[in-house]
Amino acid sequence: LKGTGIEIRSPFIIGDAILAQKHILSEWANISKMQVDDSCGLHIHVSIADFTLYDVRRLYNRAFFYEDQFFKLVPYHRRNNKYCKRFKAGRDVKNRISYSLIKQQKDFSDVSRVDRYRWINFSTATRGSVEFRLAPGTSNINLILLWAKMCVSFVDASVRPFSSKAALGLPEFCRLSKQEIQLCNDADPTHGIFKN
Prior knowledge:
Residues about 165-175 have low confidence and may be disordered. This protein has a 3-stranded antiparallel beta sheet with strand order 1-3-2, with helices on one face. It is mainly α. The chain has helices at about 15-30, 55-70, 75-80, 95-105, 110, 140-155, 180-185, and strands at about 45, 120, 130.
């Protein structure tokens, strides 16, 4: 129906099981003639159920540090979206409060007070996940899987120490194929990697 939006939720997927779902998602997208517009977003939840408070702080610090690289990968309309704001929003008082809350948190209930409309939503940490909100909606299954892979790798890397090499361009922890790395390096200034 024209003008009708829907939300598609997958079940929790562990490891390579997502590859088995790829065929099902592709078929569904083709059959339903799914269309997306600028109002759509792709939200990926990544488990942090085994994270300590220290691990959550490290993830937040990495999000702050690598924010610019992630924003280069998405279309312009997502870079200025009120539902996936930057952590580094210069004059944003709420942002400064969020950052100080994360750095001073004493338990996971403190994390849930952080503004949920950031590109990574930490308010879901009390339920054992963080939500990546930055990507645009897409019916391209390969882009959905690429983005999910980047989100999982990013969270996984947050429990490891920083590398001096990671500061140079694309973060080393994405563990992407050469083709995926090339796609990220060639990100269009307007559309990022999401050129449907």
